[in-house]
Design a protein that fits this description.
It contains 8 helices and 20 strands. The chain is of the alpha+beta class.
C-alpha cells in the first residue's frame, strides 16, 4: 500500500463523548494535530447524553482503583474547569440516607472508605440533622457530602470541544471509524466521513468509543495477543417527578451490594426538576425505552426515603446504558485503560463516574503518552 501521500495527525481519538473530548482537550496542549472521529451528527450522542449529570465525590469505589483515583482528581479538575469556562454547575451537595439500624454501620464503613479515597469532607448527621436539612426525607442517619454537585453535561462537552478546537484540534462529525492497521510507527486509519472513504496516518490511536469500544478494538489490526474485556449492557431508567422539588440536595439510599448501581436516587437538574433513577437492568442489546410498568418498582424504592411520594407524579423520562465489564452479580470491575503497544490506547468499561473523571482520564492518558 502506498501511504506516503496520506494526511498525518499526531493523535486520532475515536469517539466524541465526554471522555474522547476531554482527552482531546487535555492532549491539545501537547500535540499540534489531533483529529476526533464521531460517528453521529452531534458530539455526546452516546452514553454522555443519558446519565445523571452528577459530579461525584469519589465515595464508593474500591480504594486505589482507577475509579476512585480518577473520580477524586476529576472532580477537582472539573470544578476548576467549570468555574473558569463558565460551564453551568452547582455544588448542590448530597445526602446518603440510612433507613434502618444495620445501615448505620454500613454508613460509617462508607465514610471510612471515602476517607481512604481522599474524600475528607463527609459529615455524619443524625435523624434530627437530616430532618433539619431535608424535612421530607425519612431516615435515621445520613452522610452529608458537600463536594457532590451537578453539571450541565452538554455545556461541558461543548466547552471541551471549544477548548480543543481553539488549540487546532479537528472534530469530525458523521465520521465512522472503520479499521486501523499498524504500518511502521504509524497507524493507517480508515474512516467513512460524510459518506466518503478517507484514509490517514496517525502516531497515537485512542479508542474512546464507549459502548462500541470492544467492537472498535476488533477492527484494529496488529495488537498482538491483546483481547478486549467482555462487555455487558446494563440499562438505567429514570422517572421525573412533576411539580416542585421536595428536596434541596441530591438524595441517595445506601448503595446496592456489589455497587451494581447506586440505588434509585433523587437528582436535581440545574432547573430544579427532580428525577429518580437509574435502576439497573442487564440486557442483551441497548434499549432506551422506559416502560410505564416500572413505576410501581420505582415508587417502592423511593418511598423508603421519601414516604410522601405520590406515584402518579412519576413520569417515564429516559434511559442510559452502562458499558459494564462484569456479568450480572459478578464482582465489580474497574475502568480499564490499556496501552497495548506504543501508540495504541484503549478505554473499556467507562461507566460512572466517567463524566466526573473525564478530565482526570485525559490527564492520565496525557501522562501515558509522555512516557
Ligand atoms: C445511567 C447512567 C448514569 C450515569 N451517571 C453518571 C453521573 O451522574 N456522573 C458521572 O460522573 N458519570 C455518570 N455516568 C457515566 C458517564 O455518563 C460515562 O462514563 C461517560 O458518559 C462515558 O463517556 P464516553 O465518552 O466514554 O462514551 P460515549 O459518550 O458513549 O462516547 C463514545 C462515542 O463514540 C462514538 N463512536 C462509537 N463507535 C464509533 C465509530 N466506529 N466511529 C466514530 N465514533 C464512534 C459514539 O457515537 C459516542 O458518541 C452514567 C452513565 C449511565 C449509563
Amino acid at each position: 500500500m502506498s501511504v506516503s501521500g496520506l494526511d498525518h495527525f499526531n493523535v486520532c481519538v475515536i469517539g466524541a463523548g465526554v471522555v474522547g473530548l476531554a482527552i482531546a482537550k487535555m492532549l491539545s496542549d501537547k500535540f499540534d494535530s489531533i483529529v476526533v472521529l464521531e460517528r453521529e451528527k452531534m458530539i455526546g450522542s452516546g452514553i454522555s447524553s443519558r446519565n445523571s449529570e452528577v459530579v461525584h465525590a469519589g465515595i464508593y469505589y474500591p480504594t486505589g482503583s482507577l475509579k476512585a483515583q480518577l473520580c477524586v482528581r476529576g472532580k477537582q479538575l472539573l470544578y476548576e474547569f467549570c468555574q473558569q469556562y463558565k460551564v453551568p454547575h452547582r455544588k448542590i451537595a448530597k445526602l446518603i440516607v440510612a433507613s434502618h439500624e444495620q445501615q448505620v454501620e454500613d454508613l460509617i464503613k462508607l465514610k471510612h472508605k471515602a476517607e481512604d479515597n481522599g474524600v475528607l469532607d463527609l459529615q455524619q448527621i443524625d435523624k434530627q440533622g437530616l430532618a433539619e436539612r431535608e424535612p421530607e426525607v425519612a431516615g435515621i442517619a445520613a452522610l452529608f457530602s458537600p463536594s457532590t454537585g451537578i453539571v450541565d453535561g452538554h455545556s461541558l462537552m461543548l466547552a471541551y470541544q471549544n477548548f480543543a478546537e481553539q488549540n487546532g484540534c479537528l472534530i469530525c462529525l458523521n465520521s465512522i471509524f472503520q479499521a486501523a492497521e499498524k504500518h511502521g510507527d504509524d497507524y493507517i486509519v480508515d474512516v467513512v466521513s460524510v459518506g466518503e472513504r478517507y484514509k490517514f496516518k496517525c502516531d497515537i490511536l485512542i479508542n474512546a468509543a464507549g459502548l462500541d469500544a470492544q467492537a472498535t478494538a476488533r477492527c484494529i489490526e496488529g495488537v498482538g495477543e491483546f483481547v478486549a474485556p467482555p462487555l455487558y449492557y446494563c440499562k438505567g431508567s429514570y422517572f421525573s417527578l412533576t411539580g416542585c422539588s421536595p428536596f434541596k440536595h441530591l438524595i441517595y439510599p445506601m448503595p446496592e451490594a456489589n455497587t451494581m448501581g447506586l440505588g434509585v436516587h433523587a437528582t436535581l437538574d440545574l432547573s430544579g426538576q427532580v428525577r429518580f433513577g437509574p435502576d439497573t437492568e442487564y440486557q442483551p442489546q441497548p434499549d432506551y425505552s422506559v416502560p410505564e410498568k416500572k413505576r410501581a418498582k420505582f415508587a417502592e424504592a423511593i418511598k423508603r426515603y421519601y414516604p410522601a411520594l405520590d406515584p402518579d407524579k412519576l413520569v417515564p423520562a429516559y434511559a442510559g446504558v452502562r458499558p459494564k465489564l462484569q456479568a450480572q452479580g459478578a464482582a465489580v470491575r474497574d475502568f480499564e485503560i490499556h496501552q497495548t503497544q506504543t501508540g495504541l490506547i484503549q478505554l473499556f468499561g467507562i461507566e460512572s463516574p466517567g463524566l466526573t473523571a473525564s478530565l482526570a482520564i485525559g490527564e492520565y492518558i496525557g501522562n501515558l503518552v509522555s512516557q
